[in-house]
Amino acid sequence: MATPGSRGALYRLLQTAVGLSVFALVVLAFGFAVGTASVMAKVNPQKKKPGEVPLPGPTITISDQVYNLGEANHYLKATILLELNADNRSEKQNASLLEEVKRREPQIRDLIIREVSSKTFREVNSPQGKEMLKDELRQKINGLLTRGELKRIMFTSFAVQ
User: Fold this and answer.
1) Residues 6+ apart with CB under 8 A from 85
2) What is the pLDDT of residues 118-149, one digit of tens each?
3) How many other CB atoms are found less than 10 A from the CB of residue 129?
């Protein structure tokens, strides 16, 4: 039979056990919530708000130029904007890449001429063709660069004939 003093000790022990159990459940629930939020953020990254478009990185313009296409009497006139990939790079690294692109501009122009002259009117006259040309140019120009890369290429004017 339990004595009155031992009942109090048993009661305090029971209170402590219940308190620790509640604390453990709260910690587990918090950990579960944080883990779930982390997984959901990776699975469903936050979408940009409508109208929120990131500003382009540093750019270099290849001024308006006429290019011969790969078939007689067809031409492309375009102004090309080269956007440097400045993501996770210091200002010094971006300046170095910008300087490299400026120094390599003759090589880049030559590469563009060679690439465009291998295309037909049909290949560059569709939206898909323009995107493919941009992607091919970006990949080939990135092959020249040693201090970084282009993020994207944009046509600020584009006319084929």
Assistant:
1) 57, 148, 149, 150, 151
2) 999 999 999 999 999 999 999 999 999 999 89
3) 16
